[in-house]
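Bumping with the actual sequence this time:
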Amino acid sequence: MHRTIMHAVAVASLVLILSCLSAAAQPPDATLKMHTASIAVGVGYSWGGGIITFQGKEYPCRIDGLSVGEAGISSADAVGNVYHLTDIEDFSGTYMTVSTGAVLAGGGDVATMRNQRGVVIDLTAARQGAKIMLAVQGVKITLEGAPTASKRN
C-alpha cells in the first residue's frame, strides 16, 4: 500500500510539472512586474507589490509570504509570465512552488508557481545573482484597487 501511495504521488507530481512546462511553450495570458522586500533572521517575512497586465489593463496587486533563508534585509524585483488566466479574478490566491533554482543564461533565477485555480506564474529575478525564495507555505497574491489602462498599448 505504501508503494502504491508513493507511485500515485510521483505520477501526480510529474503531471503537475509537465502541465507547467507546457505552459511555457504557449504565449502568456498576462505579465507580472513585482517588487518585494524581506526581513530575515532565521525565519523571515516578505511583502511587496506588483502590477499584472491582463487584456490591456494594469491591475495593482499585493504579495505576502513567509520566507526562510538568509539573515538581513533585502529587496528584489522580478518579472513573470502568467499562464492559464482567463478571468482576472482567478489571479488572486496562494501560489505554491512547482520548481525553483533554474538559472537563465543571463544569470537571473527562475521559479514557477501555481495557485489553487490553476494559474501558473514563471517568475524571473530582474537582477543577475538574485535568488527567488518561495516559502513552503506559499505566497499570497491579492488584487488591490481598480485597473488602469495599460501604458503599452
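The C-alpha cells above came from a reply further down the thread. The first helix runs from residue 2 to 24.
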